[in-house]
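Q: I'm writing a short explainer about ABC transporter, ATP-binding protein for a general audience and would like to include a description of its predicted shape. Could you first generate the structure from this sequence?
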Amino acid sequence: MRLRSIVSEAVRNISAGTARAAWFFLIVLITGLLLGGYEATSIVRLEQEAVTRIAADADTKALVGAGVDGVACDALTQVDNGPTLSGAARATDSITAASTPGMELPAYEVTPGFIPLLVSGGEDAASSANDSGSQASSTSGTNGTVDTSGIWVSTDVSRDFGLVKGSVMQTNHGDMTVAGVYSWPNDGRDSRFAYAAIVPVSASSGTFTECWAKQWPVTEQTDELLRSTAIVTASDGNTAVAQVNKSFDSRYDAASSYAHRMSAWLPYVALGVGIIVGVISVRRRRLEYAGALHIGQSKAAQMLGMHIETLIWSGLASLACVALLCAYCWRMSVDGWLEIFLAACRVPAMTFAGVTVATFLAGICVRESQLLRFFKSR
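A: Of course. Here's the predicted structure. Afterward I'll give you a sentence or two in plain language.
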């Protein structure tokens, strides 16, 4: 048979309903959407959990109870595969505004690297900065240049004292210019900075009492790097590395959660469904195939026609499934939608592979000599 005749016959079988293409199309499509959608939803949920932890500073650790070298602490971001943000802090004399002489405002001296940690620590950091004027510096991912020309205050302090970026606050330590406003939600993180004034100082200006580092994913290297900033003293036995936001499980492992997700085995289920569908699509027409061989159709032409039919309904179903999964991943993913899409697409790909391979193997098994047996068992 010529190729045109084989293709024409395959198309007629589908349009006439002989191949039951619509039913098999729906089975492949529903399998891909249900299993692939569950895989995509599972990964998106893990991604959102990670984003929530990062926004709440659950990925930030602090070395406390030790003398800290401020220069070494700020330099942790220069380590390969090290923290993205790091900085040192220490408590200092409280500040009293001239307008409220009976009210002391807790104050902390920090290195320049600590300010991006504060700004990135609030979900409304950007909006808070916009409300108080434009933010003075970029703080996305590194200890880049920040405005250290004045103090930084939390949003609660900004609201109570009517302060915005550029405001001058008269205090018992003289006039202080507000360099910026940061957000510090009450979500379980260290509450000291929820209502405080932050005074930037040089990293080399003495010893600090704690060093913070933000790194994702958190590894044991983070703890070791933090301990390396401690100045050796007799009280080192009291030092500890703690999670800044203790309301989250400190044993959380993002990589392990992804590797052991329940949906990881769904592509194999999809493969099994595809194999079953492929076998059924051939088995239900085995009498027809054996009869065609009996009247002279070549096995090669039969196998080609069989696969053309299969490629049409299973291929279209798989493409439709891939398109819908792509739209879902692009819409729901917070970041890195392509990686989620590629993981979810393994399901329709495995279903398609199962159908194709099963059709080939089941088709090979159909022989002309089985015609009488198929006829009797029909």
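A: For your explainer, you could say: Residues 57-247 form one domain.
Q: Perfect, that's easy to follow.
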